[in-house]
Every structure is written in C-alpha cells, then in structure tokens.
Amino acid sequence: MRLLYFEGRHLHQTKDLAKNIPSYAILSHTWGADDEEVTFQDVASGVATTRPGYRKIEFCRNQAAADGLRYFWVDTCCIDKMNSVELSEAINSMFRWYQNASRCYVYFSDLSVESLKLSSPWESALLGNRWFTRGWTLQELVAPTSVAFFSKEGHRLGDKTSLECLLSDITGIPAIVLQGCSLANCSVQERFKWAERRNTTREEDKAYSLLGIFDVQLPLIYGEGLANAQRRLHEEIVKASKGTYHEDFSVPFSLAYVPEVENFVAREQELTAIHQALRSDGSRCIAVLHGLGGIGKTQLAVAYAKRHKNNFSAIFWLNTKDIASLQESFLRVASLIRRAHPSAHALTGLQDTASINEVVAAVKAWLSLPMNTRWLLIYDNYDNPKLPGIGDSTAIDINDYLPESYQGAVIITTRIAHLQIGHSIDVRKMERTSDVLEMLSNFSGRKELSNDHDAVELIKHLDGLPLAIATAGAYLRQTTMTFARYLHLYKQSWAKLQRSSPELRAYDDRTLYSTWQISLDQVRQENPSAAELLRLWAYLNNDDVWFELLHHADEASPEWFRTLTEDEAEQMYERALRGKEKALGPDHTSTLGTVNNLGLLYVNQGKLDTAEQMYERALRGKEKALGPDHTSTLNTVNNLGFLYTDQGKLDAAEQMYERALRGQRLDSAPYLDHRTKLCNILTDFFPPWTVLTIRTAGV
C-alpha cells in the first residue's frame, strides 16, 4: 500500500508499505475522464498539478491535515495500474484499506452547494448523484468507520451517522449496517441486492468490486466477461461460507422428516439473533431457542435452516422428544451420510446389525473429523433434559449426543428456560400486529384483514400465540364463518373453560384450548365419530398415527385388562341406559346409541346372544327414528354383520354387509364432505402420512 504526503508544496509517494502503516485518510469519489485524473506515473514524474483532478488531491490533503493526519490515499494515483500484479493485489485489498482508514472523505465533484442555494436543498441533489450509482463506492460507504461527505467547494454536508436515514433510503442498505454491523449478518442475496443497480466502467469490475463485501479473494482476469467473473465470485462465496473442504462433507439439504408449516411468517429479530449466535470460524456454537409450547420454536429453526442452507455443508434434524425418537434420528442421519459419502471412513465399518449406540458413536465421529466444521445440527423438542437431583430415567443428557470435537453449529429448541448450555434466545409471542394479521391471512385464505375490525379484534384475544392463530385460521379456511361469529364463539369457549377447567390458570393455555374447542365442536357437529377419534388422538404421538394402530388396539390389550375394564364399562353403560330410558324414553336416538354400545361391549365379553338382542333393538329403533339408510342405522347394520360372522351365521352376515355397503358407500357425498373437512383441518398440524390414513379409511 502506497500513501501520499506533502513536503512543503510538493506531493510525494511513500514506498509500498506492507507493515507499520501510519494512520491515514482515504478519498472516495467518482472518476472523471482518463486525461483528467492524476495517475501513479504523473506523481512519479512531477506533473500531477497539471491535471484537473489535482483539485481532489488538494482537498484530501487539506481535510486530512485539519483532522491531524499527514498521510492520505487516493486510488487514481496510489496504484500502478500498468502493473497487473499490483492492480490485482490492490483490488483484493481495497475493502480492508478503506476499513482501516482513520477518516474517509466522500468528495462530490458534481454537487455545488453554491449553485443550490437559490434552488432546491442539497439533500435532494444527493438522490440522483452519480456517486450512489457506481460499483466501487458501495464498499467505500460500508467499510470505513468514519465517513464524511463534502461538496465540490469542500463544504462538509454531514457524515454517515447524521445522514443515516437518507443514505439508507438512497442505497437500500439497512441502517444497522451503516452503523457498523458485520456484513456477515446479512444474507448473500441481500448484499447482492445493494449492488444490482450500480455500474462500473469495465464489466468484470461489477464482480470484482464486491470481493470485500463478501470477504473473498479472486485473481483478476480482465477480458473474461461479466458472466465468468460472477460465476467465479459465486464459487468463492460458497467455498468461504461452507469451508474449503465442504465438498468432502456435503450432504443434500432436506426437510423431509420435519413438521414444516408453509405459512410461516418470518420473525426477523429472532432469525438475526440465531445468526449472530452461530457466527463462528468453525468452533462450536450453540443457540438455544426456548419458549412456550406452540410459540413457534420449531418453525423458527426451519426458517433459519432454509434461509442459511448455503452456509452449511450439511444440516441434520434430530427429534429429541424422547430417547427412542433421538436414536431413530441418528439412524436416519447415518443413512443420509452413507448415501452421500459411501466411503465415509467413520461409517464404512458399520454392519447392518450394529447397535444403536454404535451408530450414534459413528455419526458423532464423522461430525468430529478435522475438516468437517461447517455442519448444523438441530435438536428439536428437547423438553425433558437430565437435570441434577432429578431421577427421571426417561430424561435425556444431550451431551451424550453431541460430537466430541468442539466444532460445528447447534440449534436446540426447548420449553426449558434455564438450560445451562449455549446462547439462550427467548422466543416470545408475536408482537407486531402486521405479522399476526399476515399469519392469520395465510392460514385462513382471507385477504386485507387490516381493514376488518373483527379480525383485528380477534388477534388481540389470540395474544400473538402462533399455534392459536394457525388453529383459528385453519378453521376459518374450511368454513364460511365470519370473523365476528368466530370471535363470539371464542369468547363463549373462553368463558366455558373458566368454569369447567379452572386448573388452566395460564392465559396462554386458555387461549390455545379455546381455539381448539371451537374446531372440535365443529367436527363433533358434522361427524361424532371423527370427534371421538380426535379425543383418542390426544393420548397418542402426533408424529406417527396409522390406521392399524386403532384397528388392532383391542387385540393388543392383556386379557385381564380387558376383563377388568369391560366389567366396569358394563355397569356404567347399564346405569346410563336406565337413566336415558327414564329421562328421554326407550326410542330416543341417544338411548339407542347406548343400546348399540352395550351390544359392542357384550361382543367383546363373548356374550354374543345378549349382544344380538341389543343390536336388534338398536336397529329397530334407529330405523324408526332415523330411517333405514341413515349413517348411524347402517353402523348398527355393520355391527350385526360382525356379530353374525362371529356366531357362524354367514348368510345373515352377508345380508347385513351388503345392506351396509349399499347404504353407506365410502364415496358418498356426505361421508366425503365430513372426512375432507376433518382432513383439511388436521393437515396444518399433523404429518401427511397421518392424514392419509383418514383419507383412505373409514372414520
């Protein structure tokens, strides 16, 4: 790096300085015609003063002296552009030179304050100033700590701090970047966007001028064309973000096993906090996302992984709900690694009969390899950590599942606020009204909610809880109900919960339960069987429910358990039957429902003759009250078919099955309507394979 200085009235250059560089000022400007600017050769031959551009050098000298600086740097004459090696080194170093300068002076040679006094304010003249359209001036704005702006006459117009809002509006660069925030906190796409409307004299310089913005190095090949220069720039960006050896450890990005919600509304503050926590030179960084259940921790981690997938060589998702789920996740990760790298040293020795502990150890060993530093592990739902003094055998010590080498990036989602690991990020309710309305609009399929008073009132009651907002939106998408009507039902549900469930003291719990209750009531109204199925699902794992689990549930129960529960159930059913016969009458549909249930119980107890009497009574009553083709009637017909089969009355069973099949076809419109509405509501909250079992089987 060469610097300029004056001895008396004479301009001099220092030798090329590699170290012990003194404090200096630096000039930022737009170039004039080639024969106007002072060149390296002009200074060396002593003819610099003959050029019109010498005025800029004098300005920089005078301003530097006023700031107590002897040395200064001007790009036109401090680089020997005839020397291609020196030019390449200078361009690759220029961002750092501007960054290390004590002062940076932006000189607007085309902005005269004197000529603007009688016309418009000088601020408006900046909006179209040429300096903001040039490629090289982007790094000259963001790199230095101190940047001051001057008119053609040398009048100070302001600095990067006082003009922050104006500069941000003109350039599209966020104010936080102008304040000195690391450029690494901004995405690659965002940084490219700052430069997309800027131009350079030589087309390749549109790429070369961004080397410092992305902190990469490139050899200069003038004549290669813009496309090739940009391709090489992109390659270096990828290499720098993932590491030099990323291809040796690259695994294709996939969220196939992740419960992703399409209608996620980005929470920029939290995403920025995660990115800052995971900034690293390759050493271990851990971000812990903690907050209420349903607050959006998992979806926040999904959004971060999708946005920054190019920054990592591999991203693996681990379900940490329990030990079995976590171990299953490690099996899946091992499969992904072996598929991408069949010769991966740490996993090649694994046999198909390897124990789960051997698989976990092999994956951890692969993640600990010396050059494998750019991976991201996401431990989702770590809600049962092993804590000192608590003897829970099902608790997980996450340290047993972290790679031994201190490298890579880790995200943990948990409801526990006091985990003693990593950088803690509190995921709170959504606070911005616009974000909540956007999320409600996405889930409900209804637009322009900011103009709907009832929608705005509803989100106040939902209190920024993402799960409650998603539940309400999913319900509204499947109905024609207005926001006013939904809000009325919500308030009713809230009041009912206060009376019936006083144990739900937390405001958040009541908000979630209120929205769920509205959806459950609608399902129960359209199809009671579907509602009962949902009640049963409350006790099951929402990640993997399949039809056979329900179909064969009774066969899996121990004989003593079935006998015990059936005896108690018989007493309760008989008591209910007596009460309903007295209060409602023997032919009321509710009474007949209990008669049908008693028949089912007697079948399970092996009392087939008694069960037959119950089914036949229920059938006679339903045919009279509901009609022969009603769904409930046909359910009892189907039950009789099962009973006759068990009794060996196959001809009678065949007649019952054929009648049920004729009357209640699975492709009938009412049945499909009930099933479709239930599936559409569940699609937003359950994996697709769970909903598929409902779409393809009777409810």
| Sequence stretches where pLDDT stays below 50 over 5 or more residues | 669-675, 684-699
Shape: elongated
Radius of gyration: 36 Å
User: What quaternary form is this?
Assistant: single chain
List the helices and strands and how they pair.
Blueprint: E1 4-7, E2 10-13, E3 24-28, H1 40-45, H2 54-66, E4 71-73, H3 75-78, H4 84-100, E5 103-107, H5 113-116, H6 122-126, H7 137-142, E6 147-150, E7 156-159, H8 164-171, H9 175-178, H10 188-195, H11 205-208, H12 226-242, H13 268-277, E8 285-290, H14 297-307, E9 314-319, H15 323-340, H16 345-348, H17 356-367, E10 375-380, E11 409-414, E12 423-426, H18 433-444, H19 453-462, H20 466-477, H21 483-500, H22 507-526, H23 528-537, H24 547-551, H25 553-556, H26 559-583, H27 589-605, H28 608-625, H29 631-647, H30 650-663, H31 669-683, H32 688-695
Parallel strand pairs: 3-4, 3-5, 5-6, 8-11, 8-12, 9-10, 10-11
Antiparallel strand pairs: 1-2, 6-7
At a glance:
The protein is 51% helix and 8% strand. By secondary structure, it is of the alpha/beta class. Strand 1 (4-7) and strand 2 form a beta hairpin.
